[in-house]
Amino acid sequence: MVNDMNSEPTARFTTEGTEKLLKDMARKILDLQAELDKREATERALEKASADLRKLEMVIPICRDVAALCPKARLLPFPPP
Which keywords does this chain's UniProt record carry (predicted)? Predict the structure, then answer.
């Protein structure tokens, strides 16, 4: 259907409707950006935790060896081998 210049504007193309649509779109964009920021922060936290875990995986065997050599070191809170 052709919309000529003399016809009444439909509700879809009114200034108020367009303004509401733009506000809704802006709100959705902000919500999506906030969600993306949360996901990126979670990803960084997981990467840091993974790096910390790798460090602990290297240190724990050394501590177990020390505990085996030193009777007093058995008081350390490391799990047995």
Answer: Coiled coil
